[in-house]
Amino acid sequence: MANFVEATSSQQFEDLLSKAGKFLTVVHFQAAWAPQCSQMNDVMGELAKENKHAMFVKLEAEAVPEVSEKYEIASVPTFLFFKGGQKIDRLDGAHAPELTNKVQRLSVSSGGLGGPGAEPPKEDLNERLKRLINAAPCMLFMKGSPQEPRCGFSRQIVALFKDHAIQFSSFDILSDEEVRGGLKTFSNWPTYPQVYVNGELVGGLDIVKELAESGELENTCPKAVTLEHRLKSTINRSPVMLFMKGNKEQAKCGFSRQILEIMNSAGVEYSTFDILEDEEVRQGLKTYSNWPTYPQLYVKGELIGGLDIVKELKESGDLSSVLRGEC
């Protein structure tokens, strides 16, 4: 996609800003190990399709430290917005609705959606509100962002969500007066913050406090899945799980190819997980299992080992019984 590119050096970054001129440039400071960055790149890709005259840039924050330091990037994902080579806005965190809102607002002001001077077709407000409240399973409409709440009520509700490990996305109603006013009428709820779960209004701070005190908050709002819980769930997805580079159909390294050949000859059903498609699992499983390399083989949730261990089991004639959990 011509308007969604990666900058790998400070000079390339500056060249992209210069080339964009007066049109909007959105820069995503990311890290390969952060799954939320990968998710936000998907959002960036969709925005790039919808905003042909804007430029979308992803930049590995740690790989180009001079740019990250210049713009005081302390965490990922962080998004900076530029026009005419000057930074005009900033968004910290993985907040897809707020990113979409900022791109739409800033693109319009630069003529970016339809070329210089062109006005984009205006989306019906109710349709836009429906889209926003359904943008994530749990949506918080607040003043400011979770990193920088801009009122005491918003600060309290963010703290409650964090204390109860609630997974949520947010929208800064101070950034869009149309949404701020329209949502009050749409939901028949006159104040902020407002919490929606699966597109339905839950309420404001007092309701969330009551849910927390009664122990119902976790049942009402989706809980964030910890990495440890996710790893345990993935390891136990099948009685025999092989974590490898590639999959059963196509191994993507020599070690993975060798272990597939051995596994296929054992006559036991097994499932695979491609660690190249999930950096969080790839790095997390090394620590979780205290095993630094791949492939890794698990039987009934227990680590068996890597290629060398599997080779030894085959040579000793024990592999089939181990895979069946018989020893």
TrEMBL record:
Domain Thioredoxin: 1-134
Name of the protein in question: Glutaredoxin 3
UniProt cross-references to PANTHER family, sorted A to Z: GLUTAREDOXIN FAMILY MEMBER, GLUTAREDOXIN-3
Originating organism: Salmo trutta (Brown trout)
Pfam family, any one: Glutaredoxin
Location(s), subcellular: Cytoplasm, Cytosol
GO biological process: intracellular iron ion homeostasis
GO cellular component: cytosol; nucleus
